[in-house]
Design goal:
Residues 363-393 are annotated as: Disordered. Helices cover 40% and strands 19% of the residues. It contains nine helices and twelve strands. The strands form three sheets. Strands 2-4-5-7-6 form a five-stranded mixed beta sheet. Strands 9-8-10-11-12 form a five-stranded parallel beta sheet, with helices on both faces. α1 (2-49) runs antiparallel to α2, α2 crosses α6 (216-226) and α4 (130-146) runs antiparallel to α6 (216-226). The chain is globular.
Length: 393
């Protein structure tokens, strides 16, 4: 009976801690988004009231765009923490990604910090989203920089690791087996026990107000868990911090190098027609108007069934631009398969901001180009995605 009471008390405590974490998360989201929406709504209101001053309109619109981008970054980190971010996994060697990324890391931490790469030449490949990996390493580097205000050393190490059942006994989310270990260490002031216990919590931060969202480490945690791995922190006050990422070894062959640099803006040729499949009216209207500016003629559908009816008809359709998650029981990836069956030469571009569990753990197939919402017509391409202006669909 005593054991039962103890178990019930532990369950109540765990539930209370979960509710406290949810409250902290929602409060942090509301705080950040209310600030951003104040800028966006206020600037748009001023534009609507006095639209005649072109210079003023441009300045206010630029400020609203900056706030909207910050909102998109917060959302991306939340999705990564919750492991609901759209996956574009590839089989890669982390050493290659880190070498290509070194110059950006050095710029991120500044000249007072030395960046060292200690990379195992025999490192095994892993299967992950390269863009999320680079974002995670960058978040760790920025945190390390803030922990070394007077300068120091940032060391990124890689090696193969094998975890046996004894080592994973206290980590129910981690299976025994072969892993690749990526660690990011600094010589900064470290963490005390209280900070260490909460470091991965979303919106928990020791930085001053306005100097951090508290989502950096939670984004790293979400990325590693979504990749099937495990993250842990080793730190002592005044002795620096080391964050270790255990990523499952892949048995697949490493993918070829990804193309670098932006592709030129692609405009319509010979009256090309795009079928836009989107269930949100405002997003549909924006996509149609933007494509029209590029010279495309557009057809629309609000769900997969309607799109398939269009594709089965006599109308010319060169490209299908579809949302991933839609009502009606068929997602954008499934629609793409059926669309290509009906029209083998059809080119496809997908867009999504949140897939939930619609696509499972495999995400979007590598042969289907994907835009992350929110998107702009000519936004620069990143390593994890590209704009529709740059995809030669």
């Amino acid at each position: 009976m005593d054991t039962t009471h103890q178990h019930e008390a532990e369950e109540r405590l765990n539930q209370a801690q979960k509710m406290e974490a949810i409250g902290q998360l929602t409060g942090g989201v509301a705080h950040d988004f209310n600030n951003l929406l104040t800028v966006i709504v206020g600037n748009l209101d001023m534009i609507v009231r006095k639209p005649d001053n072109a210079q003023r309109v441009e300045r206010l619109a630029a400020s609203a765009m900056t706030a909207a981008k910050r909102g998109a970054e917060v959302t991306e980190k939340l999705l990564s923490f919750s492991r609901r971010q759209v996956l574009r996994p590839e089989t890669v060697n982390p050493n290659r990604l880190l070498k290509d990324f070194r110059a950006l890391l050095q710029r991120a931490v500044g000249e007072t910090i030395e960046v060292r790469l200690d990379l195992d030449a025999s490192l095994d490949p892993v299967r992950l989203d390269p863009g999320q990996f680079e974002s995670a390493v960058l978040n760790l580097a920025v945190n390390a920089r803030d922990a070394m205000p007077g300068g120091g050393t940032l060391t990124v190490r890689t090696c193969n690791a094998h975890l046996d059942p004894h080592e994973t006994a206290d980590r129910p989310d981690l299976r025994p087996g072969a892993y690749v270990l990526v660690s990011v260490s600094d010589t900064g002031y470290g963490m005390d026990d209280a900070t260490l216990a909460r470091a991965f919590e979303p919106f928990f931060t020791t930085k001053d107000v306005g100097k951090g969202t508290g989502l950096g480490l939670s984004q790293v945690y979400g990325f590693v868990r979504q990749a099937g791995g495990h993250a842990q922190i080793k730190s002592e006050a005044s002795r620096g911090t080391s964050i270790e990422l255990y990523l499952p070894r892949s048995v697949e062959k490493e993918a070829q190098n990804r193309p670098d640099g932006p592709m030129p803006l692609r405009r319509a040729a010979s009256g090309e027609v795009v079928l836009v499949v989107e269930d949100e009216p405002a997003v549909l209207e924006m996509a149609v108007e933007s494509l029209g500016e590029l010279g495309y003629r557009t057809l629309t559908a609000t769900q997969a069934e309607q799109a398939l009816e269009r594709l089965g008809g006599p109308e010319r359709i060169d490209i299908m631009f579809s949302d991933v998650v839609m009502p009606g029981g068929m997602n954008g990836v499934q629609l793409s398969v059926e669309a290509r069956r009906l029209r083998p030469g059809l080119r496809v571009l997908l867009a999504s901001g949140y897939t939930g569990t619609a696509l499972g753990e495999q995400g979007v197939p590598a042969d289907l180009p994907l835009l992350s919402k929110p998107y702009r017509r000519d936004e620069p391409r990143t390593s994890s995605g590209s704009s529709w202006a740059e995809r030669r669909v």
